[in-house]
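I would love for you to help me understand the pair of lines that follows before we discuss the fold together.
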Amino acid sequence: LFNYVNYCGKIGAILSENKHSLITDHVASLDRAQTADAIQAAIAIGEIAHSAAGQNTFEDYRKRKSSNTLLAQQRALNLFLEFTNAFYDKTEGSKLEVDLRLHPNQLYADPAAWQLINHGLLALFKNFLENEGYALSSINRSISTIRKYASLATTAGYISPTTNLQIQGIKGYLGAEAHHVDSNR
């Protein structure tokens, strides 16, 4: 906000050089309180617009995907959701107890649900899938789906860019690495 106000002050200085501008005349007629109120209103409207656009981020993405891709993504996200719920259930009775349950399809449909997701959960999920014997192609597909929806949730404003970068750092298994993982299992 401070930077924005400074920016407006610079614009005001530029406008004051042109004394015959309609904008200059209008700005000059406003007192400081009205200007501050107008700035606050503009910021609030911008935040509302950002929130509304964020709510449509997942829907806009899904419009461009085939039904088979969407079903596979939905299954991957629901498996991750079950894992996340089980992880949070294990905190019951501890100092770190989390009273939280995500609902089926919530990670698929609600960008706000992603506020609860971080790279640690994804890393644990990846290890869980590997230990359960999931095919590496299934693990890769699940990790890719989670990373994509985390990016969408970041665009929607529900995950911080730093958290998203950490999530994007969790990769699947490719090439020789995949062969070594399968050999060691």
Summary: The chain has a mean pLDDT of 80. The radius of gyration is 24 Å. The CA atoms of residues 22 and 87 lie 61 Å apart.
